[in-house]
Amino acid sequence: MRVALPPDYVVQSNHGKTFRLHYSFLSGEDLTIYKALFNAVESHDYNVCFDRRLDPNRIQRVFQMVLADNPTLFWVDKGLAAYSSDVRTEVVIRPIFDRDEVAEMKRQMTRAVESIRRRVEGESRSDFETALLVHDILTERITYRNQGCPEQQCMLGPLLKEWGVCEGIAFTYSYILYVCGVNCTTVYGRLKGERDGHAWNIVFLDGRGYHVDVTHDLACTSFKGNHRYFCLTDDEMTDRTWDSPVRCDSVEYNYLRRRRAVFNSVESMCRHIMKVLSDGGTVLEFRVVGVPWDSVQGRVYSYLGEICAEYECEYGGDGDYHHVGFRRVRYKGTSRAAGLLRRITT
């Protein structure tokens, strides 16, 4: 059964609060495993013993939920070792950093998170505006970089070094949002055609879930300010598979829809381009549903060539999403632009 949003279960730990969404769906033996693993990491006691035989894959799956619910548990490896006999199962969790290192890293991360929180809470914002601002702060600051080190897979890399991989970036977005009063969780899945897993977020706005993939938005083009994966539905996440009890079926807070930048024809897209350029805009960001990407790209360049004497831009896209960032534009004249607008709208 898939539901819109479970009860908000919050735990107060020694280093902050988290929104424990995965926990709220567990019951029975899985819940027992979750609590035992969480308490072990929290107390820096990395050996756990169960008085019955358990499937190691099951333990690993629950441990992934523990880390997704509690991104502040950054000092352990996401893999663990489990040894089972007929009557007992022993689990060994592998620490990455010692307790003294962890204490100092917590202090550094707290300062980094508080700096972002003060910026976000400097003025009154809705949950949507908060989620958008944190998304934009992270896509502006962070670089996707696979260094093969543990910091990249937790909040340490993105917060303190401004680089990381999808898991660390998703943990960072989730935790900062929670500190700012917006519920968010990390989701694991796989991109179609890829062997490696991928992590992103589901953010909850007005009780409904929306997909947000900060990693893909910061890597879309060299221009900043991409929102291809901000507040999408399940049906719009066509490039991946995942397993989550949360249903995301609302389009109310989809970024491009709220900006009226989702079109069903090239003509409506062209009207949007003209408006952005006439308003002095430097970024075009839109979707054209059902129209091939290369066809749209050709039309955009054609219209730019007709109205601009000089321009530099980078064209990027993904599926039916298009992002054009301008560095310099010099127009041929308002009459040329007006004539083109009349031609494409009649």
Describe this structure in words.
α2 (28-42) packs across α3. 40% of the residues lie in helices and 26% in strands. It has 3 domains: 15-95, no CATH class; 99-256, Roll (C8orf32 fold), CATH 3.10.620.30; 260-345, Translation Initiation Factor IF3, CATH 3.30.110. It is elongated and about 80 Å long. β8 and β9 (197-205) form a beta hairpin. The protein is α+β, with helices and mostly antiparallel strands and 346 residues long. The protein is built from 12 helices and 16 strands. It has helices at 21-25, 28-42, 56-69, 99-120, 127-141, 156-161, 166-179, 214-218, 255-258, 266-278, 293-307, 334-345; strands at 10-13, 16-19, 47-50, 76-84, 89-95, 143-144, 163-164, 184-191, 197-205, 208-212, 230-232, 240-242, 262-263, 283-288, 308-318, 321-331. The strands form 5 sheets. It has a 5-stranded antiparallel beta sheet with strand order 11-10-9-8-12. The protein starts with 9 loop residues before the first strand and ends with a helix.
SSE layout and pairings?
Elements: E1 10-13, E2 16-19, H1 21-25, H2 28-42, E3 47-50, H3 56-69, E4 76-84, E5 89-95, H4 99-120, H5 127-141, E6 143-144, H6 156-161, E7 163-164, H7 166-179, E8 184-191, E9 197-205, E10 208-212, H8 214-218, E11 230-232, E12 240-242, H9 255-258, E13 262-263, H10 266-278, E14 283-288, H11 293-307, E15 308-318, E16 321-331, H12 334-345
Helix pairs in contact: 2-3, 5-7, 10-12
